[in-house]
Amino acid sequence: MSSKFGKLPLSTSGPIECALTGSALLNDPYFNKGSAFTPEERTEFKLHGLLPPNVQTLDDQVKRAYQQYRSRSDDLAKNTFMTSMKEQNAVLYYRLIHDHLKEMFSIIYTPTEGDAIANYSRLFRRPEGCFLNVEDQDRIADDLNQFGSPDEIDLIVVSDGEQILGIGDQGVGGILISVAKLVIYTLCAGIHPARTLPVVLDCGTNNEELLKDDLYLGLRRPRARGKEYDEFVDKFIRAAREKYPNAYIHFEDFGLHNARRILDKYQPQFACFNDDVQGTGCVTLAAVMAALKVADVKYEDLRIVLFGSGTAGTGIADQIKDAIAINTSRSKEDAGKQVWCIDKPGLLLKSKQKDLTPAQLSYARDDAEWADKPHGDLLSVIKAVKPHVLIGTSTQPGAFTEAVVREMAAHVARPIIFPLSNPTKLHEATPADLFAWTAGRCLVATGSPFAPVTHDGRQFEVAECNNSTTFPGIGLGAVLCRASRLSPGLLVAATNALAQQAPALDPAAKGSPRERALLPDVTAVRDISVRIAHAVIRAAQAEGLATQRGIPGDDAELDAWIQEQMWEPVYRPLRRVGREEASRFARGEAGSASTKRGADYTEGAA
């Protein structure tokens, strides 16, 4: 950390002021150190008699917690154990994940978090986050007021629970996707966990199993639609903006018919982001950028076919279109003509506009272009377009058949093929098949982790298009520069920064570029987030969207400025202050897991 920037409001250096003592201190997840409180802290904060006498280190605690974690019988039990730990000791929780990131990522996030969300009402122990419901809209402002003063919340993640992690409508259980997304922000980009707010907009549910479940905790009614729904979302946005004017708002897992139109409505007004639309698009574009350099394909020549044009597919198309426009000085309309989209109605054509979503309409082709060309299936489109890039978000397993792949490979030197559908069983093709069918010439990225592929005696790394390498850094940059909006230019800058970290483009790496991954691994994500945040901040300054004063002009100093404000899972010294002079945080009243709202700790880890 840089002492030069140690006086910043979000600085992570030096001692933390704390007005709590005794059991109240041990019950606060942000201050609690468990067995790691020093002798001096035990005396100063009246902890003698409340803890075993042996003082241990954070490393000791991680070792014990990992043993407890490993003793859990299945993945959902491990997820529940980690939730309990988070409610007790935030530093230990994040440090444990940090030290075992590869192993635990799938436990705290997808796919296991999906199981936890589906079982939310049955696993419920204590609430975390803000619960707003469509039948109590007049209380929205008062409900939001409980979570801090205007300058205490930097980031809000909100979901309406309609399209959760591929498992669909989960109603009020959607709060857990907001919670999980914020964990990723803290873990990967150092957003302070006490300065975040998870929100669920309970609009009812169309999930019959939940409606019939006696234990279901959400509204027992069909989902709100139309005017009632739109007014609810708008009242939340206006209340959140009034209460927390500096907060960056992240929309998560909204339904297909709402996600894009909500983003389009509010994106011109303030800094907001939808990971399903923009995050997937950014990480995929970064892999495309790296692949184009390896394959030596120019943007002006690029031809792309997208198989699956829902929220993710059109989000990818948007990011690619913006990148083509920026890199070629073409209009967005002309850039969009280099992208062909296929969905349930087949190739998107203007004559089918009644079957298309607003996001799909801009990619609909003139029917005259295809009057004499077959276009009823993927293979026919591949034959006509001869794409450099084929991307799948269709959730149709095996859709990239040998015939499709061989046809593509017959027309381009380096077929760039990304089967992105999740989970693994829904992938459009396996990397091993793609290498076999292209004689090892393909460049591949997938939506789930795959082991390296050995083909013809050479080993090829397979990049994973993991949004967690992208959205945390974008959010960090937007938060630190207090971006007034998140323009397409900021997203392209973020994507360029991610692409530059690709092992395939590292001149010092071993092996040929084709043998290396098109994206960096998630284990390097904090360094990646610094690079992305740097790029976002500089782009925001160039576009006049950065409102924070005092941003360093020197690039090396900017990196130090960013790093100084990234929360880390380490125990900082505590400095006792009186309640009269203490901030809300020092009194244990800040954050969605503050002691002010009570505690119910059920498992011991520290």
TrEMBL record:
Keywords, ordered alphabetically: Metal-binding, NAD, Oxidoreductase
Keyword Nucleotidyltransferase applies: no
Domain of life: Eukaryota
Domain Malic enzyme NAD-binding: 277-541
Domain Malic enzyme N-terminal: 86-267
A Pfam entry, by short name: Malic_M
The keyword Zinc is annotated on this UniProt entry: no
Region (Disordered): 583-606
Membrane-spanning segments: none
CDD domains: NAD_bind_1_malic_enz
Cofactor: Mn(2+)
Family designation: Belongs to the malic enzymes family.
Entry protein name: Malic enzyme
Record lineage: Eukaryota, Fungi, Dikarya, Ascomycota, Pezizomycotina
